[in-house]
User: Fold this.
Amino acid sequence: MCLHIAEASCHPSDKDNGRIRNLLVQYGAIPCCTMVWLSTAQSAQSSVGTKLNMVYEVGELFELGIQLSYLLILLGLLGAGTFFVIRQVLVRRELDLSAKELQEQVRSGDASATEYFELGAVMLRRKFYPAAIKYLQQAIEKWDRDEQDLAQVYNALGVSYKRDNKLDKAIQQFEKAVELQPGYVIAWNNLGDAYELKKDLKLALKAFEEVLLFDPNNKVARPRVDDLRQRANMYKGVPIKSEKI
Assistant:
């Protein structure tokens, strides 16, 4: 009879299944143990379905957690980038204001050697190297304070020359700085860096070794000394450029 109706109606519902089983049990068509087995099978099927749903939900929560983590990382990077940009803008504005005030002081003719030095340092930070060199030279000419403090001006002038790709003049300023202040490790590091840029490995090594005499754990000089010693060993028997050794 099932052949003469729609296909969907050929499959009895769960309710019909229950009624059929009850009738079969009543009339002895199936034993009670078989009925128990069928009930157990239904319970097991229901339990498996519940576990699968739980696994699916846990998977969704895990995926959501990963997406939230990526979102938080992205927001963190955007926040850090924004902070960096704002900080750079504020620093630039502060430097511009400082330069303007100091330039007005210089134009008035009342600027001291210290103010020339400060203006030169501002120009150096703004990467206006010719202007920095000009004001730092004027600071040296007008200097009337302690000579050890003057070493800082020579060091700044050396940095300005080095960044303007004038290594010979930069080396002269760094040497003057360490002459005035022998324990000036920043100037020694700068001197070693300048010599290394000139490919003068011996004098570069000597400058960095000088740093370690005053500061044995200096984070700039320590790795440079090890590297230069290794490179110097590679050139044993080969003349290494040096004008002073």
Confidence is low (pLDDT under 50) at residues 1-11. Residues 15-90 form one domain. The two ends are 114 Å apart (CA to CA).
